[in-house]
Design goal:
With about 900 residues, the chain is α+β, with helices and mostly antiparallel strands. The chain contains 18 helices and 22 strands.
């Protein structure tokens, strides 16, 4: 992953902050509590948390200075798998996530409904819980992003942190999908029998079968108990059958006594009839009085209800009249507002027409200006091109350069200098041959024939004449021969240069060079002037000119309305007029919106009042119907019961009759009680005794039947049969238990074998990472810790210290600085490994807190090497910016990045 920029809004200390990130290193610095760690928090929330999460930690990202409900937002642009994305995530009030794919500078919405799940899938992470994500769910990013609360290395307490490392090395897949599928299947089968800690699972078939065997064994014990119980039940049955005739004899004796008591009490049966008749008379009188009371209450309630309904109906009519008046007033006001809205809409239409017209006029005028400007440019460019062509005609095919002119001038100066030097050193010979005599002259061994010869700088001159002999004069020159050779070389060089340009002198060469320079400068000035006019060719400018002319002709064909001709003059400043019309249109639209808002409020109020009026009318109809119903029920009550006075007289008569009936009933009841204390009481006692004895005989008979049924059900033969079946089931279940135990052990062994194979494959990846950690730690600590022991999850176990043999340091016993350096070395090694597949981003929040300056400098060197070798991107959050100046990248002040 490569991060490009991040933007925060309403996020803790950040009202609005944007940070553009360097491709290599970005050091974000600032004082404590300035919001540096919040950048990493926003990155993790934006990538790994659901926007709909209501976790307390997510609710607290709202700024403390914010009032009311606000939405916290984070936007991140990044590249993953050579595709550029942008994620926009909102939390709290307006939650939601959008994922965009950026291609050819265009933003394409890729997902919105399931964007959270899509991002998690892209990052190869795990879906978070409702309480928010944890670093252990970040996939590979738990190694790469280290915040202040997560400086320690990932461990295997929650899951295998190395699972996020791709088990691939040099195009060789070490764990194939088929292997992974088999391993998952074995783990699923293993989970049926064992828990994660290796204990037998409660849902495993083994404890279920063991429970079944235990149940069967308990059933066998119960059956054995039943066999013993049957013998006891038989003995009890025999005892009960022997005592049953005695119970029947006692019942017969009770029935004989009851017959005797009934014969004695036969003379008092008439009193019972009189008592029942008196009681019926009392009940009849009581019912008559109660009916009179009920009728009187019904008549009074009916009158009260009619009175109440009449008052409610009168009140409803008054309220109905008031609401009708209010509704009529609101309808009138609504009609006025509708008329006002229509008028404002016409004004808007007129403003819109005027604005469109003046915009066309303004565009037309600008188009005309562009046409004139392009015509002037074409004309000027044509003139400049003509001048350039004239100057190009003056250019020579071959022109001397400044370097050649300078070199020729220098050679000429050197030549004159050499000649002057030879004039003052060596021999000077001036020979003039006469007409008489004979004279032979040699200069430096070369004979000079007839003619006038002048030479300087010679080494020797010999003169020979008949009769005079030969005279040789030599000069002592140390460099005369070399000087002459230089003179010849310089003369040849000057002659070749002049011949090249067909010239006779150096002055002619200088004049030719000066003329060519003036021509070239003129061409350059004209080309510069041409670029100042327009860099494009005339054909391209002419193409644009034709387009503007066509556009102008279109505008010419547009017909203007009379209002537009009158109100939009063409002789003024059209730009100001456009602004004026736009302001007028905006003001008119604002007025229209206000009027529409007032109309909508009136419409809503009118609808509410009309609904209330409809409800009031329904209530009024209901009251009228209820009143009619009450009057009808009152009429029926009058027909049924008569008037209230009649019911009062009826009640008085019923009360008097009830009093008389009660007195008669009391006298008869007193006589009955006197009789009841004698034979009648004895009859009741004997009847109850016979009833109880019958119940005892029935219970004894039922118990006997129950014993017989139990004995029949649990016979020795049936119990032995069931016991034999239970023992057979115990044997079958024991065999099943043995098979399940063998199967569980096989799954356990297969799981351990596959895990060993997986760890072997993992070591191919983890091994190089461990080697890289050892090299980096050795360099950073100055070879003090040359060896370190990491477990299969890349978590340090022990540290070896140079100079101390056979002694190693437990990781947890190491200093804070050493543990922090080692954790950084592991994270850097993992980042380099993951960068083999795709460039990675390493984020360090306030690193090197406990690390000395020399070790931190070496650590920065290792990180810089990884940046250059692996294309690693590093982001550092710190308040100690001077300690990280060794990074090759950009420094960002968090305070200046805050936009508001």
């Amino acid at each position: 992953m490569r991060l490009h920029w991040i933007e925060l809004e309403n996020w803790r200390q950040h009202a609005k902050t944007r940070i553009d990130l360097d491709e290599k290193t970005t050091v974000i610095y600032g004082p404590n509590e300035a919001g540096k760690s919040t950048i990493l928090e926003a990155l993790s929330r934006g990538f790994f948390d659901k926007s709909s999460s209501q976790a307390e930690a997510i609710r607290r990202i709202k700024p403390l200075t914010a009032s009311g409900k606000v939405t916290s937002a984070v936007r991140i642009e990044f590249t993953l798998s050579e595709t550029r994305y942008r994620v926009e995530k909102n939390f709290n009030v307006k939650s939601g996530t959008s994922l965009y794919e950026i291609a050819d500078g265009k933003d394409i919405l890729r997902d919105q409904d399931t964007a959270d799940e899509e991002i998690i899938k892209l990052l190869e992470a795990e879906l978070p819980s409702t309480r928010g994500s944890k670093p252990s769910q970040w996939g590979a990013f738990q190694w790469l992003w280290a915040n202040q609360s997560n400086r320690e290395l990932p461990d295997s307490k929650e899951n295998d942190p190395t699972a996020a490392l791709h088990l691939e090395k040099e195009d060789k897949i070490l764990v194939t999908p088929k292997f992974q599928a088999v391993q998952d299947k074995v783990k699923a089968s293993y989970a049926e029998y064992f828990t994660g800690t290796g204990r037998v699972s409660a849902n495993s078939p083994i404890p279920i079968i063991e429970k079944e065997i235990e149940t069967l064994q308990q059933r066998a014990v119960v059956l054995n108990s039943k066999i013993e119980k049957v013998d006891g039940e038989k003995q009890k049955l025999e005892r009960l059958e022997k005592g049953f005739p005695a119970l029947e004899e006692k019942l017969a004796e009770t029935r004989e006594g009851l017959d005797t008591a009934r014969n004695e009490a036969i003379d008092f049966s008439g009193i019972e009839s009189d008592l029942a008749a008196a009681k019926a008379a009392v009940d009849g009188a009581s019912r008559e009085a109660q009916d009179a009371k009920t009728a009187l209450k019904e008549l009074n309630d009916s009158a009260k209800k009619i009175d109440k309904i009449q008052k409610d109906e009168q009140k409803a009519r008054e309220e109905l009249s008031r609401l009708e008046a209010v509704c009529k007033l609101l309808d009138t006001r609504l009609q006025e507002k509708n008329a006002d809205v229509e008028k404002r809409e016409m004004d808007i239409k007129k403003c819109d027409e005027l604005t469109r017209d003046v915009r066309i006029l303004w565009t037309k005028a600008n188009t005309m200006k562009k046409i004139e400007e392009l015509e002037r440019q074409i004309k000027r460019l044509t003139e400049i091109n003509g001048k350039i062509e004239e100057l190009r005609k003056k250019e020579a095919p071959i022109a001397p350069t400044d370097r050649e002119v300078n070199k020729l001038t220098q050679n000429q100066i050197k030549l004159e200098t050499l000649r002057e030097s030879l004039m003052i050193s060596g021999l000077a010979v001036d020979i003039v041959y006469g007409k008489e005599g004979s004279l032979q002259v040699e200069v430096d061994g070369e004979k000079i024939e007839d003619g006038i010869t002048t030479t300087t700088g010679t080494e020797s001159v010999s003169v020979e004449s008949p009769g005079l002999g030969k005279v040789t004069v030599r000069a002592e020159l140390a460099s005369a021969r070399d000087a002459k050779a230089d003179i010849l070389r310089l003369e040849e060089s000057i002659r070749q240069t002049l011949n090249k340009y067909d010239l006779n002198s150096v002055d002619e060469l200088k004049k030719l060079n000066l003329n060519q320079k003036e021509t070239a400068n003129g061409i350059k000035e004209l080309v510069a002037e041409k670029r100042g006019v327009d860099k494009r060719p005339i054909e391209e400018i002419d193409f644009d000119l034709q387009k503007f002319r066509e556009q102008y002709e279109k505008y010419e064909k547009i017909e203007r309305t009379p209002d537009a001709i009158e109100l939009n003059p063409t002789d003024g400043d059209l730009g100001k007029l456009v602004n004026k019309r736009e302001v007028e249109e905006n003001e008119a639209r604002k007025i229209l919106d206000d009027v529409r808002s007032e109309r909508d409020e009136l419409n809503e109020e009118s609808a509410g009042k009309k609904a209330e009026l409809t409800g009031m009318r329904a209530d009024q109809r209901h009251l009228s119907e209820e009143l009619a119903s009450a009057v009808t029920r009152q009429s029926e009550a009058f027909r049924k019961h008569g008037s209230v006075e009649n019911q009062k007289e009826r009640l008085t008569e019923a009360k008097a009759a009830l009093k008389t009936r009660n007195e008669e009933h009391g006298k008869i009841e007193q006589r009955y009680e006197e009789l009841e204390k004698g034979p009648i009481n004895r009859i009741k006692r004997l009847e109850q005794q016979a009833k109880n004895q019958n119940e005892m005989i029935r219970q004894e008979q039922a118990y006997l039947d129950q014993l017989k049924g139990a004995i029949e059900t649990y016979s020795l033969e049936g119990t032995y049969s069931e016991l034999a079946k239970v023992e057979s089931d115990i044997e079958i279940s024991t065999e099943r238990l043995e098979r399940e135990e063998i199967r569980s052990e096989s799954y356990k062994l297969l799981k351990e074998t596959l895990e060993a194979q997986y760890r072997s494959a993992l070591s191919v990846v983890v091994g190089p990472i461990q080697d890289e950690v050892k090299r980096a730690l050795s360099y950073v600590t100055g070879l003090l810790h040359e060896d370190v022991e990491l477990n299969e999850y890349l978590f340090p176990n022990r540290l070896a210290e140079r100079g101390i043999e056979d002694i190693s340091l437990e990781f947890n016993d190491g200093s804070s600085g050493l543990k922090e350096v080692l954790a950084l070395c592991v994270r850097l090694a993992v980042a380099k490994h993951l960068s083999e597949k795709e460039p990675q981003c390493l984020i360090l929040d306030d690193p090197f807190v406990h690390v000395s300056s020399d070790r931190s400098n070496r650590m920065i060197e290792k990180i810089n090497e990884a940046i250059e070798e692996c294309g690693l991107q590093v982001i550092v959050l710190t308040h100690r910016q001077m300690e990280f100046a060794g990074f090759a990248g950009k420094m960002v002040d968090i305070q200046s990045a805050k936009l508001g």
